[in-house]
Specification:
By secondary structure, this protein is mostly helical. The chain has five helices and two strands. Helix 1 runs antiparallel to helix 2.
């Protein structure tokens, strides 16, 4: 049965590496996963899942073994997220960032409401002061004083 088929780590690694290479070479090509899946004779959904796991950081995939560790296949769950500049942020990182930005937006909206109330209060006080003729500042007194 097709669903019982398993793929070796070498096939996974080679297919994901091919997708990543072609993404860099052909960023406008939207059928890379399908084409690579055909090339490696793997299911397109399986390949999408492997690439997604690489992209979101849930599996560590390296092109070369780390520190001479020849047994490292790169398909082990990550212990801690590594700082990588060459990959897109994962789903969890994006959701965390969205939460952070929503919190900042809420704080800024509250600050904006507070400042709007303060400006309205000051505008009311200025309106009352100018209608009663009680506005006296050094500049206004000097400007309106009779000339000698």
């Amino acid at each position: 049965m097709v669903f019982d088929k398993k793929y070796s780590d070498e096939v996974r690694r080679a297919a994901v590496e091919r997708v990543l290479t072609r993404r860099r070479e052909e960023p406008e090509n939207r059928s890379i996963v399908r084409e690579v899946a055909e090339e490696f004779e793997v299911g397109p959904q399986s390949l999408r899942k492997w690439v997604l796991r690489y992209d979101d950081g849930s599996y560590d995939y390296d092109h070369t073994p780390a520190d001479g560790d020849g047994d490292r296949d790169g398909w082990e769950p990550r212990a801690a997220p590594a700082a990588r500049q060459d990959r897109r942020p994962g789903r969890r990182e994006l959701l965390d960032r969205i939460d952070e930005l929503e919190h900042r937006a809420a704080v800024l909206e509250e600050d904006n409401r507070s400042l709007t109330r303060v400006v309205a209060l000051l505008a009311d006080q200025l309106r009352v002061a100018t209608t009663n003729g009680t506005v006296h500042t050094a500049d206004s007194a000097a400007r309106h004083a009779p000339r000698a």
